[in-house]
Design brief:
366 residues, alpha/beta, five-stranded mixed beta sheet, 8 helices, elongated
Length: 366
């Protein structure tokens, strides 16, 4: 009989390794649980030990809060036991709520209008205060001017008959001199002497002045640079003994030089009181002009010195010096030097179109 072989598929499975692993895991978990419990217990002990005992005030406050919470709890329980509102009561409450919301919106609109009114009131008050301040300032200025007017000495001027003057043109060969009447002083202006001195000095030094020569039929045209000329005449002595400052000026938009004569407003010229005294400076000048048959004296009168002009005009009429006058507010006199052309440094601003001005009238004597 043949031997029976052992079946290879019936061999048993060894579970020892699996059991060891599971045992180790369970042991580790137990150890972790023990450590966690020990740490939690320690933390609880530390927390309890770290708690400070409550003060009497804290205990009373806590009891008060507890009582309030219990009262609210009782109220809520009472509400839970009450019957639910009927539909008509709910509808009534909804209508009242709608009315309250509408009233609230209207009140908000009224409040906004009230704020705007308050802002407007503050603005009007500020404007009123500013106007009151300005009014007080004007009243104080009027009072000050009235006080000055009361203290101002009224000059007595001999009555003068004023009529339409028999004006006539100034002769072409006339030598026109000027008198600035301003600040109750008469400042005599001689434009010929400083112009003659300037031309004499310019002829001496004109080779040192840069210029552009333009050849043309007849006499050539020379255009000078204004800077060196003005610098040369900055400290030039024009031999003026009437306390007048004479300065050479090159205006940026002009092609001609100008001599600007500025009198001394306080010490120069002849005052109104000095005009009435014999032998005054202005009387001496009139005596010199009387000997020149071509002399014409043109008065430039400031509106604040008309009485002074009348006195000076009487003197010129008595001296039989031909004269005329114009109203001007300038305190300087400008002499335009026509014979020398300079380079314009800046283009003039174009004039804006406006109403047509009447042509200027020529100067006349009367």
């Amino acid at each position: 009989m043949a031997r029976r072989r052992k079946s290879e598929g019936n061999e048993g499975v060894n579970l020892d390794s699996l059991m060891d692993a599971m045992t180790n895991v369970v042991a580790v978990l137990i150890l972790v649980l023990l450590l966690v419990q020990a740490d939690v217990g320690q933390k609880v002990v530390q927390f309890l030990e770290g708690l400070l005992p409550a003060s009497e005030q804290q205990v009373s406050e806590s009891q008060a809060k507890k009582g309030a919470l219990e009262q609210k709890k009782a109220e809520f329980q009472k509400l839970l036991l009450e019957e639910a509102p009927r539909p008509e009561e709910v509808e009534l409450e909804q209508r009242q709520l709608a009315l309250l919301e509408k009233s609230l919106k209207e009140n908000q609109d009224l409040l906004a209008d009230l704020n705007e009114l308050k802002d407007l009131e503050r603005k009007i008050k500020n404007e009123r205060d500013q106007e009151a301040t300005e009014t007080r300032r004007i009243q104080e200025e009027i009072a000050r001017l009235e006080a000055l007017l009361d203290q101002t000495k009224v000059e007595k001027v001999d009555p003068t008959i004023v009529g339409i003057p028999a004006s006539r043109p100034i002769p072409k060969n006339a030598e026109i001199y000027y008198a600035l009447v301003i600040g109750d002083r008469v400042h005599f202006i001689d434009p010929w002497s400083p112009l003659e001195l300037f031309e004499k000095e310019f002829r001496k030094a004109k080779r040192d002045f840069p210029n552009q020569r333009i050849r043309q039929q007849g006499a050539d045209r020379y255009i000078y640079q204004p800077g060196p000329i003005v610098e040369h005449f900055a400290n030039f002595d024009f031999n003026n003994a009437r306390k007048q400052q004479i300065k050479l000026v090159a205006r940026p938009t002009s092609t001609r030089l100008h001599l600007v004569v500025t009198p001394d407003a306080k010490e120069g010229g002849t005052s109104f009181e000095q005009l009435r005294a014999r032998g005054s400076l202005f009387e001496t000048i009139l005596n010199k002009l009387r000997g020149n048959s071509r002399a014409v004296l043109m008065f430039y009168v400031h509106p604040n010195s008309f009485n002074t002009y009348l006195e000076a005009r009487r003197m010129s009429d008595r001296a039989k010096v031909a004269a005329g006058w114009e109203i001007r507010g300038s305190s300087t006199y400008t002499i335009r030097i026509e014979d020398i052309e300079i380079q314009r440094q800046q283009e003039p601003i174009p004039s804006q179109p406006g109403p047509e001005r009447p042509p200027s009238l020529p100067q006349k004597i009367d």
